[in-house]
Write a structure and sequence with these properties.
Blueprint (H helix, E strand, L loop, with lengths): L2 E7 L8 E3 L6 E6 L7 E10 L9 E7 L19 E10 L11 E5 L12 E2 L13 E9 L3 E11 L1 E6 L2 E2 L15 E3 L1 E4 L7 E10 L1 H4 L17 E10 L4 E5 L5 E4 L2 E5 L3 E5 L20 E2 L1 E2 L8 E3 L6 E7 L3 E4 L5 E18 L6 E7 L1 E3 L2 E3 L9 E5 L7 E3 L6 E9 L10 E8 L2 E2 L8 H17 E2 L1 E2 L12 H14 E2 L1 H17 L30 H13 L3 H16 L2 E2 L2 E2 L26 H22 L3 H22 L11 H9 L5 H13 L1
Parallel strand pairs: 2-7, 13-23, 20-30
Antiparallel strand pairs: 1-3, 4-5, 4-6, 6-7, 8-22, 9-15, 9-18, 10-14, 10-16, 11-12, 11-15, 16-17, 18-21, 19-20, 24-33, 25-26, 26-31, 26-32, 26-33, 27-30, 27-32, 28-29, 34-37, 35-36, 38-39
Helix pairs in contact: 3-5, 4-5, 4-6, 5-6, 6-7, 7-8, 9-10
EC number: 3.2.1.40
Enzyme class: hydrolase
Organism: Fusarium ambrosium
Length: about 700
């Protein structure tokens, strides 16, 4: 008998269905049928209210004749409210009137869908921010009393900066570098946590660590700048408690909170973390803290978050610590340094256990992807220090350390200052990235191809950390648009990255609006303060990401909503491309086949292929895609317009770049491969190009 499995809302994967953004979520499911004979001709969807308050009971069913099973539109007139919990079941029908059993229920809870749902104030440390030097972490705390048995508790929290929350001495959730990196001038993501099991009747305490992260830490091209989105890190927190007797209580960030400096003295994305265990405050996030043993100050209550900044739950999975890797080998370098080899290039940090030594002793951890002349190879990092430092408190039983607010790209780690012989069991690497669901795989009989695929997967894991980046190790780590433009089709085959890239594309469009319709080179736009890369100059491939990335997501999922969401971004980009005789205006600088191995090391844009030729092939590809996208969305007049533009551009390309004997003016593998793959040439020309490519 067939059965319904894997009922899912939108692109959310359990357990990431708490505090979601959607009030009318689409529903998907799979069919499990050992016989292969069941053919769905109809479905029935049931939703019931999962709220504890029985007075809000909801039970609805909807039955439809349809073979659809993916992203089925919300079939009810009822629109979900903020904080609403639902359970959903699905059963199916076939043309023989067979009916499957009801599926197991899938659960979803909405977040705070309206701005007025937020009652908390934005709070910050009272000491002066905004200097050229990094700020130490801040510890925020609030004690509160609960007067009865807790039935439900939700913490809604976000920060300008990166945070980690605790309740009664226990860490809240498993997110890393929350709330993630967004275009902070436009959107700030919040997280929702279930705290029922962490709270007790009587005295409780909430504590939050806050560091600069991407918000005000140093970020950008070639080392970047500080305070790009603001000089003052800040916190917003709202804990909503429902008692078993039906009464409720809300604890919010406000002037009653206190703050002090924590043991993390430096927390930088590029440079690493410095932690002084001597400055730890015992039980700081519990009501049992000795208040006389440390100095706490009243927080600074800041003005409300601008209404222009959206508070959103976002759509992608969070960054998590997803894997632990043990070192394979301990190496003594020619200079006598101790280096650990983890056998795999990864992104994350080191976790140390059983650290022993005198109080005040320092252990330093340096990270790199390669060895050079037997030593740690830090030259590719440029000015990025990629160094963590731990100062011992002198606990004779041994200490434990792992960074909270930084990450590194590395295979090798140099450990300096370890007292005694370093046991490999005392060190492990923690792998961190956006916790996407794997959707594809590859294996064949050729080991080198299997290794190539493994490298691609690890490369994606390392560069999909909150946003899709160019690299995870040096003083850059930015959301370069050109990188994603080319990698998006591959990415969607390996992991379900729909939610993450949907988030990124929303921010891209915001930054595009700021730049008068020209997309940013990187998003979130950390080049705002950079005179070279904050360019309002249109650039092929990089800015074509406005079309190429949504199209890749659509091709993999069939979800037209991503095309509709980004359509204005796409058409705006097509309007601002400077053209002359149907092709790119030859005046704007083009990056072209960037980093062609044949290009000079000091001029990576001067590859073997004419950069203008490359730009125009991508223009034609974008026009071709806009023909399809406009038609899919029902914009048929615009589809016809793009069709005419595409035909004109092809004709102009033939005149400009194809010789009489059918060769391209750039005699390179890249030129012919692109012309074939992007369908630029006629069928006869394509065959000739393939022969020429084989010869080259």
């Amino acid at each position: 008998m067939a059965s319904v499995i894997d009922v899912q809302f939108e692109h959310y994967h359990a357990p990431n269905t708490l505090g979601v953004e959607d009030s009318t979520p689409r529903i998907s499911w799979n069919i499990q049928d050992a016989t292969g004979l069941f053919k769905q001709t109809g479905y029935e969807i049931e939703i019931s209210d999962g709220n504890t308050n029985k007075q809000q009971h909801l039970a609805l069913t909807a039955k439809r004749a349809s073979s659809l099973s993916t992203l089925v539109s919300w079939p009810f007139d009822h629109v979900l409210r903020s904080r609403q919990k639902i359970s959903t079941r699905v059963r199916l029908y076939d043309d023989k009137d067979n009916v499957t059993p009801w599926s197991e229920p899938a659960h979803l809870e909405t977040g705070l869908l309206e701005r007025q749902d937020w009652q908390c104030q934005r709070i910050a440390a009272p000491w002066g921010p905004g200097t050229s030097e990094p700020d130490p972490e801040q510890l925020y705390r609030k004690e509160f009393q609960l007067s009865g048995e807790v039935e439900q508790a939700r913490l809604y929290i976000t920060s300008q900066g990166v945070y980690e929350a605790e309740i009664n001495g226990q860490r809240v959730g498993d997110y890393f570098l929350a709330p993630g990196w967004t275009a902070y001038g436009n959107r700030l993501q919040y997280q929702t946590y279930d705290l029922k099991s962490a709270l007790v009747e009587g005295a409780n305490c909430i504590g939050v660590r806050l560091a600069e992260g991407w918000f005000s830490g140093r970020i950008g091209f070639e080392g970047g700048h500080r305070n790009i989105w603001g000089p003052h890190t800040a916190l917003l927190a709202q804990l909503e408690v429902l008692y078993a007797n039906g009464h409720s209580e809300t604890i919010v960030s406000d002037g009653s909170w206190t703050v002090t400096k924590g043991p993390i003295k430096l927390a930088e994305i590029y440079d690493g973390e410095k932690y002084d265990a001597r400055d730890e405050i015992e039980s700081w996030s519990t009501a049992a803290m000795d208040k006389a043993a440390s100095k706490w100050e009243p927080v600074l209550v800041m003005e409300n978050l601008s209404s222009e900044i959206e508070l959103t739950a976002g759509y992608g999975e969070p960054v998590r610590r997803v894997e632990v890797i043990k070192p394979l080998e301990k190496i003594t370098t020619p200079s006598g340094k101790t280096v650990l080899d983890f056998g795999q290039n990864l992104v994350g940090y080191l976790r140390l256990r059983n650290i022993k030594g005198p109080r005040g002793h320092k252990i330093t951890l340096r990270h790199a992807e390669v060895l050079e002349n037997g030593e740690l190879g830090t030259r590719p990092l440029r000015i990025c220090k990629a160094t963590d430092e731990y100062t011992l408190k002198g606990d004779e039983s041994g200490e434990t350390y792992e960074p909270r607010f930084t990450f590194h790209g590395f295979r090798y780690a140099e450990i300096n200052g370890w007292v005694g012989d370093l046991d490999l069991k005392s060190v492990e690497a923690v792998v961190c990235h956006t916790d996407m669901k794997p959707v594809g795989g590859f294996e064949c009989s050729e080991p080198i191809l299997n290794q190539l695929y493994k490298n691609i997967v690890w490369g994606m894991r390392g560069n999909f950390l909150s946003v899709p980046t160019d690299c995870p190790q040096r003083d850059e780590r930015l959301g370069w648009s050109g990188d994603l433009a080319l990698f998006a089709p591959t990415a969607t085959l390996i992991y379900d990255c729909f939610g993450m890239l949907k988030n990124w594309l929303i921010d891209l469009e915001h930054d595009q609006t700021v730049l008068d319709g020209v997309p940013p080179m990187v998003s979130p736009d950390a080049t705002i303060a950079d005179p070279i890369w904050c360019r309002r100059v249109p650039c092929a491939i990089w800015h074509d990401v406005t079309i190429l990335a949504p199209w890749a997501l659509y091709q993999e999922t069939g979800d037209e909503s991503i095309l509709a969401q980004q359509y204005n971004s796409m058409t705006t980009w097509m309007k601002v491309i400077p053209r002359k005789d149907h092709l790119w205006d030859p005046e704007p600088f083009q990056l072209g086949d960037w980093l062609d191995p044949a290009a000079p090391s000091d001029a990576p844009w001067k590859g073997a292929t004419d950069a203008k030729l490359v730009a125009n092939m991508f223009l034609i590809q974008s026009l071709d895609l806009m023909v399809k996208i406009s038609a899919i969305l029902g914009h048929h007049d615009e589809s016809a317009k793009f069709q005419a533009e595409s035909e004109a551009a092809r004709g102009a390309f033939q005149d400009e770049y194809v010789t009489r004997n059918g060769r391209l003016v750039s005699e390179s593998q890249a030129a012919y491969a692109l012309a074939i793959c992007l369908n630029i040439l006629s069928p006869a020309q394509k065959k000739h190009a393939a022969d020429r490519l084989a010869w080259l």
